[in-house]
Amino acid sequence: MLFIKTKDVQLPAGNKPAFVVAHDPETGTPRVFKVYDTENFRAAYRVESKELLETECEGIQWRGPRVPALEIQRALSFFREVHSRWRTEALVHLYLDPKTHEITVEAPPQRVSVARCEFEATPTPEGLRHFGTMHSHHNMDAFHSDSDTAQELTAPGLYIVVGRIHDPYPSFSPIFAVDRTKRFPLNPGDVLDWAAPADEWMSRVIVEGASPVRTAGRLIREVVAGDRSV
Question: Sorting pLDDT into bands at 50, 70 and 90, what band is 196?
Answer without folding.
Answer: low
